[in-house]
Amino acid sequence: MARLPRLTVAGYPHHVIQRGNNRQAIVKSDADREFLLELLGENAKQHRVALNAYALMDNHFHLLLTPETADGVPMMMQSVGRRYVRHFNDLHSRTGTLWEGRYRSTLVQAERYLLACMVYMDLNPVRAGIVADPREHPWSSHRHYIGQLIDRRVTPPSLYWSLGNTPFAREAAYTELVRAGQSATQQGAITDATLHGWALGDEDFSAALQKRTPRRVAKARAGRPLSAPR
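Predicted structure:
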């Protein structure tokens, strides 16, 4: 079955995952990590995409992006992918592909899943056994949101600002969200939606979104094919 085109709509947050080919490392040093993050920040700005959050792992990375235009995310990811692979191959004397095909993404219902996606990303290095606490992982936006540093690449979403009236209140509230963790059900919903390209939200959200795009936005129910609007 042919893969569906990616679902991208201006103004909505998108959770993006890009993996290394055959789960190989996409970074070999802190210099690689810094270069990749600089590319992400530079291209997000160039293509009018808000970089809301990120988590960089050894063989993949997660992004939470909100584009101003429908082609912002794909143009950003294409530019980052090409420039980083060229840099990585030249620096490490290698050739060939680095990525596991095209990036995966899901469009997120902000009020229900945006903060959940941020927590999911922050806890990724903990689930992978790399660190015991997300504060110990320097290659994510987590420390920016809990007030340990300022990362000028990051644009906090409006829901983060609603966590409190002062920076301290917002940082404390977000720290508690991450500390509370997530259920296996919520983790599974985020992972499944992102890997399959379905919208991450409730039925009303999916129905409203379907009116804005001919691309099918949700998995069809058994026995009831979901038709895109004409």
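Summary: The CA atoms of residues 182 and 190 lie 11 Å apart.
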